[in-house]
Amino acid sequence: MSLALRTVDAETGIATITVNRPEVRNALDVPTARAICDAVLPLREMPDIRCVVLRGAGGAFIAGGDLARFADDFDQAASVVHGLLDALHPAILTLRALNAPVLGVVHGAVAGAGLSLMSGCDLVVAARGTRFVLAYDRVGAAPDCGGTWFLPRLLGPRRAAELMMLSPTWDADQAQAYGLINRVVDADQLDAEAARLAAQLARGPTVAYGKFKRLADASLSSDLGAQLEAERAAFASGTRTADFREGVTAFLAKRPATFTGH
Question: In terms of CATH, what superfamily is 4-202?
Answer without folding.
Answer: 2-enoyl-CoA Hydratase; Chain A, domain 1 (3.90.226.10)
